[in-house]
Design brief:
By secondary structure, the chain is an alpha/beta fold. Helix content is 13%, strand content 29%. The chain is globular.
């Protein structure tokens, strides 16, 4: 029996949402089609998160990264050169580059830059590992990162600029909000609702039907058995609500 990370799982149905096809082939779940002439794309960000995203995009074979944009770094990351700062985005779009991806770990900044790119006319692509398992009935937004060995099950809805990190499991009917981040190794049972800009820390487990509010933060290793209100911090086993989350999203 193949493992969840076996890249040749064959299915006999078509993807319900054509956007899944950007990085997940409907008949070979997790396997991307070979594109003879990959489209050029820029990646905004040149830090640790960008290193993973670069490898996802290269593995997909759908896009050719022409360079990185970062306001604080120069040189190269993952073998890809930094070709400008945020101030150069308009120039890059006018040069003919039509596609972009935002590889920033900070939720608010990722959303802000992503919307800025859309206003400039960029098409925002997805970066999805070939080893991720994504249901054909899942609905995916734009600018989403889905890391290796992640599982997104039936009728899940992943909104724009969300990060589904390494080894995350999201069971059926999960709702993952705009620019939220589900950190490595989380297990979310069915019918979970994660609000926009929320952060769910590494190794968190969540029982069915739980809601995590907008901009809430769940600490690493927590076990959620009750809802987390918007803007609050929850930690522990079982998790307790401690205080306003403020800027405590440290686990990036």
């Amino acid at each position: 029996m193949p493992s969840l990370v076996d890249p040749v799982i064959i299915l006999n149905f078509e993807a319900a949402d054509p956007r899944v096809g950007q990085s997940c082939v409907s008949k070979q779940l997790g396997v991307n089609p070979v594109v003879s002439d990959p489209e050029p794309v820029i990646v905004v960000g040149a830090g640790g998160h960008a290193k993973v995203v670069i490898e996802l995009i290269i593995a997909s074979a759908n896009y050719r990264i022409v360079g990185l944009v970062d306001k604080n770094r120069s040189g190269a990351t993952g073998g890809i050169p930094v070709i400008g700062t945020d101030d150069d985005l308009r120039r890059l779009r006018q040069s003919g580059i039509e596609r972009a991806f935002v590889a920033l770990g900070d939720n608010r900044r990722r959303l802000m830059i992503g919307r800025q790119l859309q206003k400039l006319g960029f098409e925002i692509v997805n970066a999805i590992s070939p080893t991720a398992v994504i249901s054909p009935s899942a609905q995916l937004g734009a600018g989403i990162a889905i890391m290796p060995a992640a599982v997104v099950n039936a009728d899940c809805h992943i909104e724009d600029f969300a990060i589904i990190n390494t080894g995350v499991i999201i069971d059926h009917d999960g709702q993952i909000g705009e620019a939220s981040h589900i950190a490595p190794g989380c297990a979310l049972a069915g019918t979970i609702n994660v609000g926009r800009l929320a952060f769910v820390g590494t190794g968190t487990s969540v029982i069915p039907g739980i809601s995590i509010g907008e901009e809430a933060v769940v600490g690493a290793g927590a076990c959620l058995i009750s809802d987390v209100p918007p803007g609050m911090l929850a930690v522990g086993v079982p998790a307790k609500i401690l205080k306003r989350s403020n800027d405590t999203q440290n686990e990036r």
